[in-house]
Amino acid sequence: MQLDVLLRVHSGRLRVTDACELIGLQRRQVFRLLRGLKQDGATSLLSKRRGRPSNHRPPAEVRALTLSIVRERYSEFGPSLAKEKLAEHHGCSVSRETMTAPEFCAGPTPAIGLRPCQYIGPKSAGIRRGLPHHFRKRAYCTASLSRPIFG
Fold first, then answer.
1. Collapsing DSSP states into helix, strand and coil, what is residue 103?
2. 27-76 residue pLDDT tens
3. Are 35 and 27 in contact (CB under 8 A)?
4. What would the pLDDT profile of 96-109 be if each residue is shown by its tens digit?
5. Within 13 Å of residue 2, how many CA atoms lie on the same side as its CB?
6. Degrees (nearest 5) of the Cα angle 66, 108, 78?
7. Can you tell me the distance from the alpha carbon of 84 to that of 94, in angstroms, rounded to the nearest whole number?
8. What's this model's pTM, rounded to 2 decimal places?
9. Which of 10, 26, 73, 74 has the lowest CB atom count within 10 Å?
10. Please, are residues 40 and 22 in contact by the beta-carbon 8 Å criterion?
């Protein structure tokens, strides 16, 4: 959306003040974006930090230690519970997002077991056509660090 608005400003079809309202930026920032667009093209609108690690990422040693503890003792736990157990028993505090990182989720982890998901209900198409209720088959969920659950 920013690119479209800035291209319209650049071609003269849109005023800068209208662009400020559409994008939600100050006039000065719109001119800064226009200058970058003229110099570097559309790539200037992307973040310069794209592809680099976060400043808040824990050190590699902490991640390696945490990974080894989780794989050894808490492989069956979800990310939140594994995080709590690390803090409680090992004094290692990491965020829940760190626990859902790909290296924590990779590798073989034993399945907790199958449990039925919540009741899904009848197919709505059958109800609309006046057909008798046809219940969907129950889906089975597995929860482990091999497949992080968000939400």
1. helix
2. 999 999 999 999 999 888 888 888 888 888 888 888 888 888 888 888 88
3. no
4. 777 777 666 654 44
5. 17
6. 55
7. 9
8. 0.44
9. 26
10. no
